[in-house]
Amino acid sequence: MMYNYQHQNSHQPPAQHHTNLQQDHSGHNTNSSVLGQHGTFSSGMLSNSTPSFTPNNLQNGHAATTRGGQAQQISEHWADQLKLHKDSERAHTTMIEQHAPHHYARLKAGENRGIQSTIPTTSPKGTQEHDTEDRGRPSNLDSAVRRQDWHNMDLSGQGLRVLAMPLFTYTFLNELYIASNKISYLPPAIGQLRHLRYLDASNNQLTELPPELGMCVYLRNLLLFDNQIRTLPPELGSLYQLDMLGVEGNPIDMTMKQEIMDRGTRSLIHQLLESAPGQFMV
After folding, report:
1. Of 142, 144, 184, 136, whose CA–CA distance to 163 is shortest?
2. What is the pLDDT of residues 100-148, one digit of tens each?
3. Which of the listed CATH numbers 3.10.450.50, 3.40.50.10380, 3.80.10.10, 3.40.50.720 matches domain 15-112+149-275?
């Protein structure tokens, strides 16, 4: 399903949903708490993928995690990731339990209101002679049809198992939503979408990422929440503009996850770049 709206240089991820926080360190169960300025998280069933929260708040508005019995500050970047993860879970619940796919397209529908079609629906005003003369000329609708005013595609919540290859011919896409499906792998052709700035592949069955994803060098948000990804290819070090790498809900290598928790996405991307065997051609 495609949806039209005029491209914006910066696009905030749509408001999404809420779920239970999970736990991450040493098997200690603690009560969830308020994340300061980043909203309130409800307590619930805990697993081994997310840090828990102590009841105290720090001066900068963030709660603290427990590591070895000691309080640890939550970085602003990680607090933002946890919020996006909860939003992703809410969207997933909406699409799966309420059978309402294309969640993000529906959110965008409000933004599309008032945008007029570039294709005229009536003939130009003029005399009968002018109308008759125009009938013999090539239609000027061709240029309007060729004009590309949409840059987003939402395939979320449809139960897809594979991505059809024609998808990767839409090289003009800026945003692609394939969340809440049953996709087990991303094909190498994903690297053809060089203009992607936002890719949401959360709530699928991904176990790894293709190195070709590193060719999408304009990516700013790569959301992979709630998959089965254990490690990241060093080629992702080419994503020098990436601001948010959403890995919560994955059995990701703890060293990589801790780097994001402590220093943010940019720091991990820099480490991946340094560990790459050679320069990745883009």
Report:
1. 184
2. 898 888 887 766 555 444 444 344 444 444 444 444 444 454 444 455 5
3. 3.80.10.10
